[in-house]
Specification:
There is one protein chain. This protein is mainly α. The protein has helices at 4-19, 22-43, 52-61, 65-83. It is 72% helix and 0% strand. Helix 1 (4-19) packs antiparallel against helix 2, helix 2 crosses helix 4 and helix 3 (52-61) packs antiparallel against helix 4 (65-83). The longest helix is centred in the middle third of the chain and has 22 residues, at 22-43. This is HEPN domain-containing protein.
Length: 93
Amino acid sequence: MSSKKSEKLLSEARKDIEVGNLNKAASALYFSVRKELEDLVKRMGYRLPRRDDKLANILRHTGYLEASIHFMELYELRKKADYGDEYITEDDV
């Protein structure tokens, strides 16, 4: 990982999973990955888009199809955790 912020968020996500705080873990994990992805996109020379699907499209169009799919799955999980009426379950993780 290239950023201390993303490392901290990943560490928090792991701790949250251990104690069963799956909603918090999903959100922290998403932001950890997004921070790393933003740094990568900048290093690749692309302008950083605001929307998650546009960020995933950069991955897709540079040959990282599977990573772009996983990023969007993580985004949907974060939305469920932060905005949905349902809770994140162990099956989601």
